[in-house]
Amino acid sequence: MEALVSAPLARHIDHTLLKPEATSAEIAAAIAEAADLGTYSVCLSPSALPVDLPGELKLAVVIGFPSGKHHSSIKAAEAALAVAEGADELDMVIDIGAAIEGRYADVEADIRAVRDAAPRPVVLKVIIESAALSDEAIVAVCRAAEEAGADFVKTSTGFHPSGGASVHAVSLMKQTVGDRLEVKASGGIRTAADAQQMIEAGATRLGLSSSRAILEGAEAAAGY
After folding, report:
1. Structure pTM?
2. For this structure, is 58 an active site residue?
3. What is the C-alpha separation between 217 and 176, in angstroms, rounded?
4. Lowest mean pLDDT: which of 60-64, 88-92, 132-136, 216-220?
C-alpha cells in the first residue's frame, strides 16, 4: 500500500454523496469530511447546489444521473445550471441503451451537447456504466467521449445492478484513451486494496463514498 499513501491517495478521491435520501445536514457533513480528509473534490447531486466549499476543495456534480435516459437538451441544461451554481466538474451518464445497441454516434452527440453547454475549464467526466457493456462497446464509447471533448471516462454510477468498477474495465478504458483522457473508477470500491488495484490499472481519480475508511486502511497497511 506504500504507493497509495505516498501519492497521496486522498488527492485521487472524489468524495461522493449521491443517495436520493441525502439531507441538507448529510450534504454539509460530506463537504466537511471531504475537506478534513483532503480529497480532491466532493461529488453531489444537482439539487444540493449551491454550496459553500472550504479551501481548495473542488465541486463535482452528476448530470443525467443515474439512468442516463434524459434527453440531451435536459442534460445540457442541467450541466449549464450546475456550472452557474459553482460546479467545477461534471460527471454525466450516457444513454447506456444507445451504447448497447451500437449507436455510438448518438452517444457522441449526447456527450457533445453537455460539453457545448459546459466548455472548459469545466472538467467533463463521462460515465459509461462499463459493467453493462461489452468490451467492444467500452472501447467505442471511450472513443466517442474523446471525440466529443470529454476529459475523463468513468466506469460506473454505482447504482446499476450489473455492478461497479472492475480492474478489467479500467485497464481497457486506459488502453483506449491513453494519456489523452483520464480514467475515473467508481462503484464498489470499498477497501484500500480495491483502490490500489484501480490506480495500478490506470485510474487517476476514484469515486468513493467510504473515503475515510479506505484512507485509514491504506495508512494501516503502510504501517502508519
Report:
1. 0.95
2. no
3. 31
4. 216-220
154 in active site: yes
Q: Is the peptide bond before 8 cis (omega within 30 degrees of 0)?
A: yes
Annotated catalytic residue within 91, 110, 151, 194: 91
pLDDT per residue as tens digits for the range 85-125: 999 999 999 999 999 999 999 999 999 999 999 999 999 99
125 is known as an active-site residue: no
Single out the catalytic residue among 75, 125, 174, 184: 184
Active-site option among 75, 125, 154, 174: 154
Average pLDDT, the chain: 95
Domains of the chain with bracketed CATH: 2-222 (3.20.20.70)
